[in-house]
Amino acid sequence: MSDGASHTAKLRERLTTGTEDKLGRALADLLENPLITGTIGRAFDARERAAQAQELALSALNIPTAADIERLTRRLRSVSQRLEGIEDGVHRLNRALSEGSVERRLAAMEEQLKVLSSKLSVAAKPAAGAPPAKKSGAGEGAPTRARRVSSVAKTSPPAKKPAPKRTAPKRAARPKKSA
Hints:
Radius of gyration: 49 Å
Low-confidence stretches: 145-153
Strand content: under 5%
Distance between the termini: 130 Å
Mean pLDDT: 78
Number of strands: 0
C-alpha cells in the first residue's frame, strides 16, 4: 500500500506542477491579448455607466442612494455628539444651581468677607495710633520726593496738541482753451 500511496503522490505532484505552469502561461497569454483587455475595459466602463444611470434613476424617483444615506448617517452622528455635549452642560448647570448650592456658596463668601474685614480693621488700628515715622537722611527743610514730583508736574509745560492734518493746496482753475 505504501507503494501505491507514494505513486499517487508523485502523480499528483507532476500534474499540479505542470498544471500550474500551464495555467499561468494561459492566463498571461489571455491578459496580453488586446481583444481580452479591451473587453475587460469595456465591461468596467459599462459597469460605471450603469452605476451612474442607477443614481440618476434613483434621484429622479427621489430615492436616496447609498452615498446619500452614508452622508446622512455621518451628519446624524455629528448632531448627536453635539446634543450630548449640550446635555452634559445643562446637567452641570443644574447641579451648580441646585437648591442650596448657591446659598452655601454665598454664605461661604460672606464668611470670607467677614474674616478679611476683621483682619483689615486689626491692621488699621496700630497704623492710626502710631506717630508718623521720621525719614532718615532728609532734613526738615528738604522737600520730600512726593513734593518734588508734584512740583515738577505743576511746572511742566502743557501737553502739545496734535498737529493739524495737512491738506494739499488747492489748485487754481485753469482757463479753458478756445479752439
